[in-house]
């Protein structure tokens, strides 16, 4: 009889311990309402998720290098409006895509193709928000940038409204840029580092022309711009005609520190980029990222760190999200 009680006691203790360990495991993985993004999230549920996205991005960037900056900017525009939830990908007459700053976005078909291939490999498993995040990392690496590990497990949002789009603009002073980034939990180092993403890609002449021909109605170029740079841009974006111009003159397809050097030399086309050299705090960060001031920072490493932070802005992990079947429409 006594032995029977001992056995029962051991069995009950064992079951209680198992229950406690399981409960703790669940509370860790479920924190935040459903799932919390982490590296390796899909595991066995979709073994090839990273290689499938990479191969789609590779073929699109090889056939058109403009897709790399296109994806990077799209990810930024997604995360800053309703969080990184692929709301930027939803089609519709009044969706985010239709808002002014989003009309020049490129690379939608890259994400849609990756989604189609992932639905065949692992149906209803990988979110469009995760695909966009992975594709952005791959685009940077294909452009020569340093790689980083991408936490996965975001869900896709169900709401996308042009009226929610309130992104930083090319005439914003540094104070406004800092404020907009701080509102998204990003500090000034993140701001400068992420704007360093302008090392690839182009801007429409319409956004640039005014400062190179008639700055603030003076009939003259912005005096802050290096005078030897002015005629080069005037030739690319004449008073009439011209299409797009490089954000990083001389190194538009290479993900490197050349853009930050151009900011230092006042040889950049966007006013919001040029003023980063005028503010003491942002200037010091540029000097550190260029290795001109101690403690120096490595741009490649910092970019990955700041991208992970940006990619976790207001992510959806619970009943507010879903795994879309196609990226352009809610289920
Ligand atoms: C203060 C913040 C920012 C401002 C004011 C800004 C503004 C702009 C503007 C005006 C353009 C040109 C768009 C066009 O004419 O089509 C542009 C392009 C671009 N931006 Fe930003 N941006 C900011 C931050 C960022 C961030 C955080 C990233 C990514 C991490 C980013 C990545 C890009 C890329 C890659 C392009 C080139 C797009 C292409 O070639 O298709 N930008 N940005």
Q: Can I get a quick summary?
A:
This protein is mainly alpha-helical. Helix content is 46%, strand content 2%.
Topology:
Elements: H1 2-30, H2 49-63, H3 67-79, H4 108-121, H5 128-142, H6 174-182, H7 188-195, E1 202-204, H8 205-213, H9 230-236, E2 244-246, H10 258-264, H11 271-274, H12 280-289, H13 299-311
Bound molecules: protoporphyrin IX containing FE.
Keywords: Calcium, Disulfide bond, Heme, Hydrogen peroxide, Iron, Metal-binding, Oxidoreductase, Peroxidase, Secreted, Signal
Catalytic activity: 2 a phenolic donor + H2O2 = 2 a phenolic radical donor + 2 H2O
Main location: secreted
Order of helices and strands: HHHHHHHEHHEHHHH
The CATH superfamily of the largest domain turns out to be Peroxidase, domain 2
Tally of separate domains: 2
Q: Let me know the average pLDDT.
A: 92
CATH architectural designation of the largest domain = Orthogonal Bundle
Structural class computed from helices and strand pairing? mainly alpha
Helix content: 40-55%
Poorly predicted residue ranges: 18-33
Which compounds are bound in this model?
Answer: protoporphyrin IX containing FE
The third-level CATH topology of the largest domain is Peroxidase, domain 2
Counting DSSP E segments of at least 2 residues, the number of strands comes to: 2
What gap, in angstroms, lies between the N and C termini? 60 Å
Major β-sheet annotation:
2 strands, antiparallel
Q: What order do the strands of the largest sheet run in, or round the barrel if closed?
A: 1-2
Radius of gyration: 24 Å
**How large a portion of the residues is in β-strands, by DSSP E?**
under 5%
What is the approximate shape? globular
Q: Give the helix tally.
A: 13
Q: Given this structure, which CATH class of the largest domain is correct?
A: Mainly Alpha
Main location: secreted
Pfam family, one: peroxidase
Domain Plant heme peroxidase family profile: 36-331
Family: Belongs to the peroxidase family. Ascorbate peroxidase subfamily.
């Amino acid at each position: 009889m006594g032995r029977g009680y001992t056995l029962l006691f051991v069995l009950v203790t064992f079951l209680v311990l198992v229950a406690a360990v399981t409960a703790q495991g669940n509370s860790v993985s479920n924190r935040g309402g459903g799932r919390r993004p982490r590296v390796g999230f899909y595991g066995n549920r979709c073994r090839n998720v990273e290689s499938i996205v990479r191969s789609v991005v590779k073929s699109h960037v090889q056939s058109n290098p403009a897709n790399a900056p296109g994806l990077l900017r799209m990810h930024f525009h997604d995360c800053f409006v309703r969080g990184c939830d692929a709301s930027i990908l939803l089609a519709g007459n009044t969706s985010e895509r239709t808002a002014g700053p989003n009309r020049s976005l490129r690379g939608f078909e890259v994400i849609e193709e990756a989604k189609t291939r992932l639905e065949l490999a692992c149906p209803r498993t990988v979110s469009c928000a995760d695909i966009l995040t992975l594709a952005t990392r791959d685009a940077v690496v294909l452009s020569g940038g340093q790689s980083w590990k991408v936490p996965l497990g975001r869900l896709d949002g169900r709401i996308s409204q042009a009226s929610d789009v309130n992104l930083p603009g090319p005439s914003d002073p540094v104070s406004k840029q800092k404020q907009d980034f701080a509102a998204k939990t990003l500090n000034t180092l993140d701001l400068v580092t992420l704007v360093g993403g302008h090392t690839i890609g182009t801007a429409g002449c319409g956004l640039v022309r005014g400062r190179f021909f008639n700055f603030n109605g003076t009939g003259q170029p912005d005096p802050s711009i290096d005078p030897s740079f002015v005629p080069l841009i005037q030739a690319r974006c004449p008073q009439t005609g011209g299409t797009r111009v490089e954000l990083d003159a001389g190194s538009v397809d290479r993900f490197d520190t050349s853009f930050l050097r151009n900011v230092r030399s006042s040889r950049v086309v966007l006013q919001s980029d040029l003023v980063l050299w005028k503010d003491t705090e942002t200037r010091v960060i540029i000097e550190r990222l260029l290795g001109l001031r101690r403690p120096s920072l490595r741009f490649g490493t910092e970019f990955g760190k700041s991208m992970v932070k940006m990619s976790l802005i207001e992510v959806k992990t619970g009943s507010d999200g879903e795994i879309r079947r196609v990226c352009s429409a809610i289920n």
